[in-house]
Amino acid sequence: MNDSTIPVSVPAAFGCGDQPLPAVGLGLWKIERASVGSLVTEAIRVGYRHLDSACDYGNEADVGAGIHKALTTGLCRREDLWVTSKLWNTFHDPQHVRPALEQTLRDLRLDYVDLYLVHFPIALAYVPFDVRYPPGWFFDPDAESPEMRPVRIPLADTWQAMERVVDAGLVRRIGVCNYGVALLRELLAACRIPPAVLQVEMHPLLTQEKLLQFCRQAKIAVTAFSPLGAPSYVPLGMAREADSLLTHPTIMEIAAAVSHTPAQVLLRWGVQRGTAVIPKTSRRERLAENLDLFGLSLSGEQMAAISSLDAHRRFNDPGVFCEQAFNTFFPIYE
C-alpha cells in the first residue's frame, strides 16, 4: 500500500491499538455529490487508505456509498482504511455529540470512524436534523438578515462528550481542528483522553512552525489541510490566482530539479516535515500523482527554501470569512 510508506505515528486511544495514519489522504471538501462516490472508490483502488470527511461537506452519504462499494468488491478491508469525520459547530452541546456522530456513521455506512474531530472551536445554536442537515453556518438562512448564532458551551464539555463516544466504541480516536497552542494546552490540562490528531491549515505560506513543534512535544499528530495553499480558495474569492504556490518560482525551480510536479513538491514538503497531508482533487488523473511522493526526497536546502516562503498567510480564517459570508464577526486566531 504505497500511501503508508511513511506513516505518521498516532497515539492509541484507550486500548484501540496503534494504527499508522497514512501520510497522504484524500480531502473530500468541495467535491460534488454526483461524483464523490465513484471518486472515493477509485481512490481506494489506486491505493488511498486515508479519507477525510465531515458532516459539513454535505456529501457523507455519497462518500459512504463509495466506501461501501470498495469494501464489498474486495478493494480493501475495513481495517485497512483510516476514515476521519468531524463534529459540526451546531452539535457542541454534549447531548448532541453522539447523535451527530451516529448520523455520520449512518451516512458513511460504517460501525465506527477511525478519527472524529471537533471541526472548529466554535459553538453555534443547535439545528435539528429534520430542520436542516447539514446545518451550515446560519441559524436561519431564510431570515431577513441571516446570521450565525453563537452559544456558550465550554469546549471542555464538548470534549467530555467526545471521550464518551470513544468509550462506546463508535470512534477509535478523537482530535481537534483549527486549534492553536493556547487551546491545546487548555484541552490537555483537563482531558481524560488526549487529542490524537490536530488538523490545521498548513502550507509553505503558513508553516506554523511553533504549533508543529508543540504538537511533536505533546505527541499530537498533525494533519495539514489545504497543503497546496490557495487553489481551493480562489473560486470562493478567499484567495487570488497570484497566491498560487503551484506557479511560484521557488517551487517550480525545485520541481524541475527533482523531476516532479509542483504539487508533488508541496505535498512532499508537508510529509517530509512530519505531517499527514490531505489534498483535495476531483480529477482522477491527479489521484495517483498526489500519492506518488515516496520516491522523492527533498534536500535540506530545498526544504529550507520552501519553508522560507512563510508569509503567515491564512486562507481559511473565520475571523475573515464569517463576517464576509455569514454576517457575524467571529475571530478564533489572534
Name the descriptors.
334 residues, 9% strand, TIM Barrel, alpha/beta, 36% helix, eight-stranded parallel sheet, disordered N terminus
General description of the model:
The chain is of the alpha/beta class and 334 residues long. The chain has a single domain, classed as NADP-dependent oxidoreductase domain (TIM Barrel, Alpha-Beta Barrel), CATH 3.20.20.100. The protein is 36% helix and 9% strand. The chain is built from eleven helices and eight strands. The chain has helices at 33-46, 60-72, 94-108, 155-167, 181-190, 209-218, 249-258, 262-272, 284-291, 300-307, 318-326, and strands at residues 26-27, 50-52, 82-87, 115-118, 174-177, 197-201, 221-225, 276-277. Strands 1-2-3-4-5-6-7-8 form an eight-stranded parallel β-sheet. β6 (197-201), α6 and β7 form a beta-alpha-beta unit. α1 runs parallel beside α2. The longest helix has 15 residues, at 94-108. The relative contact order is 0.14. Mean pLDDT is 93; it is low at 1-17.
Strands, helices and their partners?
Elements: E1 26-27, H1 33-46, E2 50-52, H2 60-72, E3 82-87, H3 94-108, E4 115-118, H4 155-167, E5 174-177, H5 181-190, E6 197-201, H6 209-218, E7 221-225, H7 249-258, H8 262-272, E8 276-277, H9 284-291, H10 300-307, H11 318-326
Parallel strand pairs: 1-2, 2-3, 3-4, 4-5, 5-6, 6-7, 7-8
Helix pairs in contact: 1-2, 2-3, 3-4, 7-8
